[in-house]
What we know:
Layout: H1 4-22, E1 30-31, H2 33-40, H3 44-57, E2 60-63, E3 67-70, H4 75-96, H5 102-121, H6 124-139, H7 145-157, H8 159-166, H9 171-187, H10 191-219
Antiparallel strand pairs: 1-3, 2-3
Helix pairs in contact: 1-3, 2-3, 4-7, 4-10, 5-6, 5-9, 6-7, 6-8, 9-10
Amino acid sequence: MPSIHRTAANQVVAELRRRILSGELPAGAHLRQEAVAEMFGLSRIPVREALQRLDAEGWVRFAPHRGAFVSGLSAEEVAELFELRLLLEPHLLRRAVPRFRADELAGLEQAAAGFEQALHSGERERWGAANRAFHRQLYAPAGRPRIAALAQGFDERMEAYVAAHLGLEGIAPRAIAEHRRLVDAVAARDAGRATAVLVDHLERTRDELTGWIARREKAA
């Protein structure tokens, strides 16, 4: 049975995440523990736990001696990160496809299943990490660890936003289907088809995500 503090922290996480997503709490907003505790009528213990969880998800960042602040990327920054991903990831996938061994393909299928399970679980904090795990497995056989690390770094920077995007209506089933199409193309050793699916996947996510962020910025 969850503790009282854990239950209270869950409520704070859900509400602060909602306010960040809606633009009610814009990027850069200072989240003082005392003020948040007073807002929810709680002690500082569950509030501190909630802020730490939001920090792990990428919604909040802690500044030394200053406390917690809402983290955020602009639509233009997200577009630029996708521009970099579109340069690197298709290159990695084209190299990876003909190099996949049977055990690596099994690992990719397992990562796709893990992503699907994470989405079905409803545990939002798992979504971004499960998505990154799939893409990491997808590019590993390319044998270009430095390029892959760069691509993963850009993906990590957007993890919270990707998770939010997956939470929008109709997005999760399509993302699952697109990952499955990638697995099928890799299994068929069809680098051209796999790359086309990936580019479409990244471009569609970019357009939907930047549009969503732009609407939040305008509302704020």
